Amino acid sequence: MKFRGKDVLVWSVNNYLGLANHPEVRAVDAEAAAQLGMGYPMGARIMSGQTDHHEQLERDLSAFMQKEDSFLLNFGYQGCQSAIEALVNRHDVIVYDSESHACMIDGVRLHQGKRYVFKHNDMESLETQLKRAKTLIGKTGGGILVVTEGVFGMAGDQGKLAEIVSFKKEYGFRLFVDDAHGFGTVGENGRGAGDAQGVHDEIDVYFGTFAKAMATIGAFVSGPADVIEYFRYNMRSQTFAKSLPAPIVVGAIKRLEMMITQPQHKEQLWKVARALQSGLKKAGFNIGATNSCVTPVFLQGGLSEATNLTVDLRENYGIFCSIVMYPVVPKDVIMLRLIPTATHNLDDVEYTIETFKKVAAKLAEGKYVGEGIANWA
Length: 377
Ligand SMILES: Cc1ncc(COP(=O)(O)O)c(C=O)c1O
Fold this sequence. Notes:
Elements: E1 2-3, E2 6-7, E3 9-10, H1 23-36, H2 52-65, E4 69-73, H3 76-87, E5 93-97, H4 102-110, E6 114-118, H5 123-140, E7 144-149, H6 161-165, H7 168-171, E8 174-178, H8 193-196, E9 205-209, E10 219-223, H9 225-234, H10 236-239, H11 246-261, H12 264-282, E11 295-300, H13 303-317, E12 319-320, E13 322-324, E14 333-338, H14 346-364
Parallel strand pairs: 3-12, 5-6, 5-7, 7-8, 8-9
Antiparallel strand pairs: 1-2, 4-10, 9-10, 11-14, 13-14
Helix pairs in contact: 1-11, 2-11, 3-4, 12-14, 13-14
Pyridoxal-5'-phosphate binds near residues 76, 149, 178, 180 and 219.
């Protein structure tokens, strides 16, 4: 990628499988845009926004996800938020992981009943909240919705889905999983974190986005036919908004087909991810508890050190990666977040690790200490 005219090695784009600029994908996208126009269809699904392409993609997704039905969402963020909202009423209780993505938290905020948060991936805390929820619904007559992520997008650890579903029998909840980062990257052909953990069937509503592994836009939910049918008429962000443009849908059909029939993209992604993660560990870096492609690197330092280090990486070493700072992480922690893709290679990995060793040494020597936040311009 070029950043302000300079070539940089980017670890910060959502393009896990490298499909964004794949010639087959670009040809289909261009042909669909030329044939159909980017404006088509000109309405919400429920009005005039339904096409054969939308229906085909929903069928393809259902077959791939091994769920009864699927519903396309014009944006992942709003779709996820409004799917959560649609699943509950004021008698129900939502029990959700404390590190859930903002769109899930916003969905929880729209809920008019009680919500109980459990500590991130902490099964004791989950059970405590499930007990409270069960007591409450005993009075309200509602149900429990447990909400978590398949692969947590910030630190890369998978939601403990296998452990969570083991509580289902006793607490009788419905499980909603946002697998934005797992779809396309983990499980068979990229079926996701539930598949990787052998509990895919126990996920009641699976949310995936086209914006990460497929590097396009839009999203979907898959689940039981009656739930999906309910979504079609009750998910406010879809009922009252334009449906996905048909060329985007045609492009997603192509990408899904490639996910299934061209495993080499996922294999390359994992080759890069494994080399990156094992190389960083070998070099002494703390990469947390990731068990996905998302690769965090935790360093010690304040805000000014974080920004100075990132500018140094970008301007002097040509490496562009995201930093995560306080308040997402504690004040004295710097988290660099690397997103490997199938378009990276092992030379990129080696160069990055060697560079990280250099900047970590500079950090330890106090070379990034400064006043305030570095000038990004
Ligand atoms: C876990 C998670 N859920 C949902 C979203 C939103 O998806 P989209 O970019 O398709 O709106 C994201 C994107 O950052 C995400 O990381």
